[in-house]
Amino acid sequence: MSALHIKKGSTRHSAYNLRPTFSDVQEKHTLAVLVENEPGVLARVIGLFAGRGYNIESLTVAEVDHTGHLSRITVVTTGTPQVIEQIKAQLGRIVSVYEVHDLTVEGASVERELAIFKVAGEGDKRVEALRLADIFRANVVDSTLNSFIFEITGAPEKIDAFADLMRPLGLTEVARTGVAALLRGA
Description:
The chain is α+β, with helices and mostly antiparallel strands. The chain has 2 domains: 27-106, ACT domain (Alpha-Beta Plaits, 2-Layer Sandwich); 109-183, Alpha-Beta Plaits, CATH 3.30.70.1150. Helices cover 27% and strands 39% of the residues. The radius of gyration is 23 Å and the shape is elongated. InterPro entries: Acetalactate_synth_ssu, Acetolactate_synth/TF_NikR_C, Acetolactate_synth_ssu_C, ACT-like_dom_sf, ACT_dom, AHAS_ACT, AHAS_small-like_ACT.
């Protein structure tokens, strides 16, 4: 159908309505990047984020194939859909990167994190910290007369909720591993 055959006032095929629509909604995505396990690869990946002003909320790296010399970098980042697509494309252009997977869009995934919390307190606060740790299935890995160190694993939201409850009870230190994630299914 040519522009001459469009009814007056119709905008269905107008060239003026071909402007792309960009979303400014920030989305959190978990990216799994399979890379060659060699010096400098992590620095190049991090440099991509830093050089373009992209934020990294969580970062974990570990060797996953010793004989193939492969490591897996799991990055949790936030951005508009266009920024996320740009990040994935730019990661894919790095020579030492073999695969880039966006676990957020490829299907259901399992995300877990490990954290340890030092909580100092006495009396009722100490008893309440132990009660909450039991509810959250956190393990006591160290105990003194004045403090506990709890170990907890779970989704990042569970870790955040536990931290929020421990703050008024004497939370003094937190160490978190960052997110490890895998797609569900075969």
